[in-house]
DNA sequence: GAGTTTGAAACT
DNA sequence: CAGTTTCAAACTC
């Protein structure tokens, strides 16, 4: 019955009630409801044992329109608070959004066929595209905010924490829910993970907002990127960042650089000279000097420019661009050295 | 363990 | 949007 009702509404793409029925057996329903709208004449019922969100209105049961309910990242549960009588909204909540994100896609009823999963997916997509959900932002709730409390920010209740006067638990669900609403009004992405994939199919994770570090060089755990063991990206606004991708042959580079020392030739201006001398720092007296021709310099500059252009095209941060260029510079020098030392 | 530093998030 | 405050974690001693 639930399935047929939802299918009916899905086909009609109506805002408002997703399905209506006056005789739904709630104990046999599990619904993946995500956002609904409280109605003046109705109430929400929450069934803790089987996640269920139903608006009981005059003339029947309604489950209200759903939006922003993509099937990804549904990890937390934000349900309407458990009011004293579990039947009526607070007057102040009338018309306000109800958020209910389930941790997983659940069966709509106990006897669905094997096509259920696909059906649910299509259902979510269709509803998401037709809803008119609009959050309100007039609720001011003083509660531990999303940023300060890790449990709250991750959508969890506090459990075995050392927090004082904690409201982030099932006993204070009214306050908790209002705080969630305030946070979501302020920042719809407040409860999304900070670290995610930058693009579909991208293997490397990245920080969704980027860091703003100023003093740590992004090389301490103060930096969210560093803490997550990822390099800073172009969206970071960090100053003096040292947290960028290491070249696979950095070791080679460092070894090479240890043996290098750019010498003087013609008033310290390398571009006015035809050759450059590189002599090893170690065992300086015994190793022969390495000469770099003007052609080598030109070729190196061209390769560095290519790197700079690629960084610009890719929209990388300045520090990342510098890193790419320096890595290329290292490769150039390494090649020059290898050729000369072979000779 | 106390005090300091740091940066995200909240706040103005 | 920029500057300031608050907060909790990281860090240092």
UniProtKB/TrEMBL annotation:
One Pfam family in the UniProt entry: TCR
Protein name: Testis expressed metallothionein like protein
Lineage: superkingdom: Eukaryota
An annotated GO BP: male meiotic nuclear division
The species this protein was found in: Meleagris gallopavo (Wild turkey)
Gene Ontology CC terms, in alphabetical order: cytoplasm; male germ cell nucleus
Subcellular location: Nucleus
Keyword vocabulary terms for this entry: Nucleus
Span of domain CRC: 137-246
Family membership: Belongs to the lin-54 family.
Nucleus recorded as keyword: yes
Keyword Nucleus tagged: yes
Signal peptide per UniProt: none
Gene: TESMIN
InterPro entries: CRC (IPR005172), Lin-54_fam (IPR028307), Tesmin/TSO1-like_CXC (IPR033467)
């Amino acid at each position: 019955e639930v399935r047929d009702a939802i299918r009916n509404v899905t086909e009609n793409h109506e805002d408002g009630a997703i399905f209506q029925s006056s005789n739904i057996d709630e104990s046999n329903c599990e619904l993946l409801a995500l956002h609904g709208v409280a109605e003046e004449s109705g109430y929400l019922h929450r069934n803790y044992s089987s996640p269920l969100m139903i608006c009981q209105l005059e003339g029947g049961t309604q489950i209200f329109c759903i939006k922003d309910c993509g099937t990804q990242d549904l990890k937390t549960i934000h349900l309407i608070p458990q009011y004293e009588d579990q039947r009526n909204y607070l007057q102040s909540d009338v018309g306000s959004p109800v958020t209910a994100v389930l941790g997983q896609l659940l069966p709509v009823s106990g006897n669905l066929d094997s096509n259920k999963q696909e059906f649910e997916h299509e259902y979510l997509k269709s509803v998401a595209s037709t809803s008119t959900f609009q959050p309100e932002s007039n609720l001011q709730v003083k509660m531990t905010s999303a940023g300060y409390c890790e449990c709250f920010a991750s959508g969890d209740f506090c459990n075995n924490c050392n927090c004082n006067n904690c409201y982030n638990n099932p006993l204070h669900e009214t306050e908790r829910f209002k705080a969630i609403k305030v946070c979501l009004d302020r920042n719809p992405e407040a409860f999304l993970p900070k670290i995610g994939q930058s693009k579909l199919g991208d293997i490397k994770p990245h920080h969704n907002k980027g860091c703003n570090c100023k003093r740590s060089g992004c090389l301490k755990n103060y930096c969210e990127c560093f803490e997550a063991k990822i390099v800073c990206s172009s969206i970071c606004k960090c100053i003096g960042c040292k947290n960028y991708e290491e070249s696979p042959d950095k070791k080679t580079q460092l070894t090479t650089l240890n043996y290098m020392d750019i010498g003087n030739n013609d008033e310290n201006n390398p571009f006015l000279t035809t050759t450059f001398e590189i002599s090893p720092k170690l065992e300086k007296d015994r190793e022969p000097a390495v000469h770099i021709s003007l052609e080598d310099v030109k070729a190196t500059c061209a390769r560095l420019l290519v790197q700079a252009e690629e960084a610009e095209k890719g929209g990388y941060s300045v520090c990342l661009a510098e890193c790419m260029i320096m890595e290329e510079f290292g490769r150039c020098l390494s090649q020059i050295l290898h050729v000369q030392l072979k000779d």
